[in-house]
Amino acid sequence: MLLKEIVTEKRFAFFERAESWQDAIEKSCLPLVSTGCATPEYAQRIIECVQEFGPYIVIVPGLAIPHSTKGAPGVSRTAIAFAKFEQPVRFDEADREKDASLFFALAAVDEDEHVKNMRQLFKILSDEKLLEQLTHVKSEKDLLALDPQFLPNTYLKYYLYPDYVVEHSDPNHTRADEVIEGREKEVFGAAREIIRKGTATGGEFT
Question: Burial of 120 by CB count in 10 Å (0-12 exposed, 13-18 middle, 19+ buried)?
Fold first, then answer.
């Protein structure tokens, strides 16, 4: 999943606040700069675009996607970086819906890789629960804990991230509920399909 890649590639950052929306864009692009995906010139290009076209990078309240055109000055690799600000960044004094605390900065050189990244990002943007959880992350561990591919076994979450689990768990939705909705549901569904077909291909439970 995208979050695992962002953490593995060290393309993430956490900030208490930004002095301005320009400062926020520069800070959100720092992980791209530090990992060799872009230079500070790229952040300046995005700032120029926002000054010219308005806060187009704030796609929904609370979330911004700093980006410019493919092959923009200062970009050397296709990548996505994540940044979180504890204090929301204000882009428009007259419109609070343009505030943002979550930033996914995009850099694009290779079209295929860019499309792949956008598909993964779209999955995150389409998941309201995940977006809400992202507003609470404060560390690398928190990001990884949200990636089901990093921790496919829920028990590992309890052992490796007990504080996170306690803070974000719903007492009315227990581990048993997660099992029933997840793996158990898949197993019973696969079993019903085998019964219906009268045969098994060997891949139903992978």
Answer: middle
Q: Do residues 84 and 102 touch, judged by C-beta distance below 8 A? A: yes
According to DSSP, the β-strands at 79-89 and 12-15 are: parallel
**Which tokens hold the place of 69?**
């055109």
Q: Which two tokens stand for residue 56?
A: 């187009």
Give me the helices (H) in the chain, please: 2-8, 21-28, 30-34, 40-53, 111-125, 128-134, 140-145, 154-160, 162-168, 175-181, 183-197
Burial of 16 (0-12, 13-18, 19+ CB in 10 A): exposed
Q: 3-class SS at 56?
A: coil
Region of residue 176 (phi > 0: left; psi between -120 and 50: alpha; otherwise: beta):
alpha
Residue pLDDT tens, the chain, 206 long = 788 889 999 999 999 999 999 999 999 999 999 999 999 999 999 999 999 999 999 999 999 999 987 678 899 998 999 999 999 999 999 999 999 999 999 998 877 777 787 888 888 888 888 899 999 999 988 888 887 544 444 454 555 556 656 665 677 776 566 656 655 566 666 667 777 777 666 554 45
CB atoms within 10 A of CB 123: 12
- Other beta carbons less than 10 A from residue 152's beta carbon: 10
pTM, 2 dp: 0.71
100, β-bridge pairs: 62, 89
